[in-house]
Design a protein that fits this description.
By secondary structure, the chain is α+β, with helices and mostly antiparallel strands. Helices cover 18% and strands 25% of the residues. The protein has one domain: q2cbj1_9rhob like domain (Jelly Rolls), CATH 2.60.120.620. The protein has 3 helices and 10 strands, in the order βαβααββββββββ.
Length: 216
């Protein structure tokens, strides 16, 4: 008996992309100062989709329309990379893709001690991104503090585990993916993926920028 060559490939893959702005220190300090100065009701999201926490400030979704140079510098970095991920994940010819117009909603979060964000996704966008302005303190004894966690979208995939599937390769493994963001890091992912932020136990502030993008 002769078998043909065996090929194993992902069948329901989810594209995740990561990059980092380097150097990022100057830009991040300018963004931090601006965001903290605007931690006021004038800039707060008036219609949050969740029950607001006292430990979490969420801005309005118009961040990338702010004229400040540091915001516009971040805008170019984030949106250029979202477009790159969308293009490289697509079969659409580059010339056709270039004719599309990208839209976005973008905002920032200031998270203080015990602040977190419940699991959610963004059903009215195609690609989402998170940029880390300030990672915040990583306190000893709290390894799960402030993690960005992506939930496995394959409902029930890990409902039966045995010795034959407990040690699958990363691209096939079950369960969530957790990231401890670093300053200057950008993560791009499909907007349908459920994600959350675990409680942050640093004594300072964790600062991130989030963006939802769609094309038309």
């Amino acid at each position: 008996m002769v078998s043909t060559p065996l090929r194993i490939e992902p069948g329901f893959a989810v594209p995740f992309a990561a990059t980092r702005l380097a150097p990022c220190e100057r830009l991040n300090r300018e963004l931090e100062a601006l965001f903290l100065a605007r931690e006021t009701d004038e800039y707060r999201n008036p219609t949050p989709s969740h029950v607001p926490q006292a430990e979490m400030f969420e801005s309005r979704f118009n961040l990338f329309r702010w004229p400040e140079s540091c915001v516009q510098e971040l805008r170019s970095f984030v949106l250029d990379n979202v477009a790159r991920v969308a293009l490289e994940s697509s079969t659409l010819p580059a010339a056709d893709f270039a004719r599309l117009r990208m839209h976005n909603h973008t905002w920032y979060h200031l998270t203080r001690y015990a602040g977190s964000f419940v699991a959610h996704n963004h059903p009215l966008a195609s690609w989402s991104a998170v940029y880390c302005v300030r990672a915040g303190e990583a306190p000893a004894g709290q390894p799960g503090s402030g993690l960005l966690r992506f939930l496995d979208p394959r409902w029930g995939a890990g409902s039966y585990l045995d010795a034959g599937n407990r040690a699958l390769r990363r691209e096939f493994a079950f369960g969530s993916r957790e990231l401890r963001l670093e300053e200057g890091q950008l993560i791009v992912f499909p907007s349908y993926v459920l994600h959350e932020v675990s409680p942050f136990y640093g004594r300072d502030v964790r600062i991130t920028v989030a963006s939802n993008c769609w094309f038309g």
